[in-house]
Amino acid sequence: MTKMKTMLKFEWKKTWKSKKLLTLSLLALFSVSFMYFYHYSMQKEALSDKSNIYSDYNNETFALLTYYMETLNHEDSPPDTPELYKNANQMNLSIMEVQRAISKGDLDSLPKLELEFIQRVESHLELGGEFNILAEEDLKRWKTKNELLIQHELPYDTEEYPISTGPFMKSMLALFLGITGSIIFVLFFSDNLNAEYEQQTIRTLVTQPTKKWNILLSKYTILIIYAWIWAVFLLIFSLLIPSIFQREIGNFQYPQLVVGNAGHEFVDTSTFILQILFLFVGTASFVISLLLLISTICKKRFLTIIFFLVLFVGGSLLTTNIPWLTVSWNPFLYINISNYLETTENNNLLFPNFILMTYSFIGFLFSLFFMKKTALFNFESLQQKPFRGGNVYSKIKSINAILLFELRKVLRKGPLKQLVIILLIAFIGAYVYLANETNQRQEYFWDYWDRMVNFHKEQIIPLTEAQILSKEKEIEDLEVENSKEAEDQLKLEAAKNHLEQLNQSLFSQTNDLKSLEEMITSYEQEDWSAVYHYWIYQNQLWKGDIDTEGSYESFISNFTFEASIEEKKWLDRYNIAPLQNPEILYTIHEKKLDKSKSMKIDSTGLFSLFLFYDLNIYLGLFAIILYLVASIFSSEHGKSRTIDFLRTQPLYPSTLLTGKIMVSSMISGMIFLACSMLIILLGTISNRFGDWFYPVIHYDTPQQSGAAGYNGFIMEQGAFHFITMGEYLVYAGLLGFCSLFFYLSIAVGLAVFIKNEILILALTIFISIVGYTLISNEMLVGISHWLPFSYLEIGKVINGAQGLALENAMIHPLTGIVVLIISSVLIFAGTFICQKIYSR
Questions:
Q1: Are 735 and 794 in contact (CB under 8 A)?
Q2: Among 223, 415, 635, 829, which residue is least crowded by beta carbons within 10 Å?
Q3: At how many degrees (to 10) do helices 165-176 and 212-246 cross?
Q4: Which of 587, 606, 616, 577 is closest to 725 using CA atoms?
């Protein structure tokens, strides 16, 4: 026990001298202050959004008033119509009162005014009326919340951006003790154990008269203490900052909604905060245990952070999006504390904490195992057999010797094995997420089509048929009267015209239903031609190419509609299976569409690789590879300074540099190629290989579309044509390799002067961002095709979006390949010159 106390004091003094406590407090103060002022700045927008919601309610109420007014003019109007009209009018007045309070900023009276409106809506529903814009369940929740606000004399506070003390504190704790806070904490304390390995102080620690579990437990305990210090700082600052600006401590009885399978309930903010803190006991233990486990495996801070982010964020995303992972024994179910508490009625948090603490204990045991296995003075490398059984080469050139030496060193000593494991886990996890998203998207469209069929069968067609029967009876009554007056004759003529329109509508609706059902049947039978003919017709209808009596208003541009039509024609020509979303082809001209929800998605091998480039995921892979390259160079300048030994060998400095560059390039290229092949392999095994001739849209500049012999499609917003998926991926692979070697050359150039791998990576990223930003400068746009940074976003280069954005038709994948190769060669040459001058 005494040794444990000594280790705790030792760890505390180390963190105290590093001023982490002060930094942590300033970080908490800055984070909470920033969020408060952000919430405060969003108040007008939040109230404006609420006013817009009431505008929608007002439109619905106005439609009801219009309908009831027309109904009152008929002799056969229902007896409760006057009461419904009166109540709708009162609903309209209530809405006006709420909007007036919002415009004045009178949030104190808002709960009472909203409750009056809710009661009017309930009365309307009790009378047999409809208010489709507001679901009955939402109405009940809304009513309960406003009743609680009135009961406790609380003002209205926006749910998304609260600024009153209680709700704001709850919001901050939910944010900074949940996923976001865990990531910040890990970034801040990731060096707790890694620093011991990187600085080799672990050698000293394990020689002390103390057990290794004492060393690990002391670090675990210190991190737990700092986690709770972080929570205390958040509590203090989230209480003080709103209280200072509002000049009152505030009320902690503000109702917080909890929704479960059995219904909903409200708990006061103080109870919700206590639940967050109680669950934080388990989540903090789990996160810290996971951090220590990864640290004992990776031993490098950057690798630890990457591995943690892959496991932590990936586990959270998969748990959120895959239903069968939302089981009670999954620790990632509880990491998003606020989301878990808001979606469960079970107030017993002992079980989640038990699960989290169990995983924490298991993680600690594994950490201890890996620490004992790998922290013993690096003896494991000495136990490995030498290459070629210890035999040496009798004759070998110096460049070949250093090349073999560097390659063997990377394979045995470098972080290559850890990186391979991290990448393997990351890509498998990402593919599982992609496959699940594909299945969910497909299920959504099947459900959507079924709902459309039912909507036609149960509502649209029956309503039109009822209107036809009513109109036929009206015509029959007018003909029986046989009035010769001009007014009655006009009524009869208008009724007949209306009946003809209704019959035409019924015919059109019946045909639409039949076409939809035939499309669904064709989709099930994989008769893609019939499916595409249906969607071509629909896009032409939405675009306005087909004359109909009704009008179709859409915020989607004609460019997108035309591209969607031509895409379907291409797919029909090559008999290619459709991908989700099958209706519309997302284009860069759609600013109102959410790309993540509108873009096509599929889990086939080729399309998975397409998404790898289109979503710029390859940039993350580049960063990991560049870190590996930086570590190859910087590892020579550590405490052991093996570079001094190498300089004593009969080798030129340029030979040493050449060997490192060749090994770095070879390892980088192999990792990039292996990852690309892994993506295709995962998609092929899980789904299928994909379609080489699948169309990919290419945006053309005015210079290209104006050239003689142009075969694309010209629209008002721009021009386009299609390239095949195979052509896209070939260009993407070549550009990917060339881009990787270009950024590799920058990293190697920096490594001549900088000896820290994280700093090398950070500066490489910084230079890339600055270079990419400068290419849009007016002075550089004309020569942007000669600048290597123009080809940073491979997907945009291949599909023409980059050339269109920079108004430069010369930006082409082949040009990019040449520019990147020449730039890489020049930077490597400059690196050799600088290294020669620097080594003098």
A1: yes
A2: 829
A3: 150
A4: 606
Helix (H) or strand (E) holding 713: strand 713-714
Least confident of 302-316, 644-658, 761-775: 644-658
Determine contact, residues 615/726, Cβ cutoff 8 Å: no
For tokens 């989700």, what's the residue?
580
Long-range CB pairs of 354-360 (<8 Å, 24+ gap) are 354/282, 355/282, 355/328, 355/329, 355/331, 356/281, 356/282, 356/283, 356/285, 356/286, 356/331, 357/281, 357/282, 357/285, 357/286, 359/286, 359/289, 359/331, 360/282, 360/285, 360/286, 360/288, 360/289
Spatial separation of the C-alpha atoms in residues 820 and 786, rounded to whole Å: 9
How many Å is the maximal CA-CA distance in the chain?
A: 122
pTM of the full structure: 0.76
For the stretch 51-76, pLDDT in tens is 888 888 888 888 778 777 766 666 55
CB 502 within 8 A of CB 467: yes
Q: In this structure, are residues 173 and 238 in contact, taking their beta carbons and an 8 Å threshold?
A: yes
Task: Tell me how far apart the alpha carbons of residues 464 and 513 are, in angstroms, rounded to a whole number.
Answer: 14
Cα-only R_g, the chain: 34
Token readout for 688 is: 């299928």
The per-residue pLDDT for 304 is 84
Identity of the amino acid at 376: L
Question: CA 375, 379, 383, 387 torsion: positive or negative?
Answer: positive
Q: 581 preceded by cis ω (within 30°)?
A: yes
Instruction: Give the bridge partners for 700, in sequence order.
Output: 719
Gap between the Cα atoms of 222 and 11, Å rounded: 7
Mean pLDDT, residues 453-463: 82
At 83, list the tokens.
């009461």
What the block records as the tokens of 335 is 């990491």
| pLDDT tens digits, one per residue of 22-44 | 888 888 899 899 999 988 888 88
Q: Which residues fall within 8 angstroms of residue 527, CB to CB, at 6 or more apart?
A: none
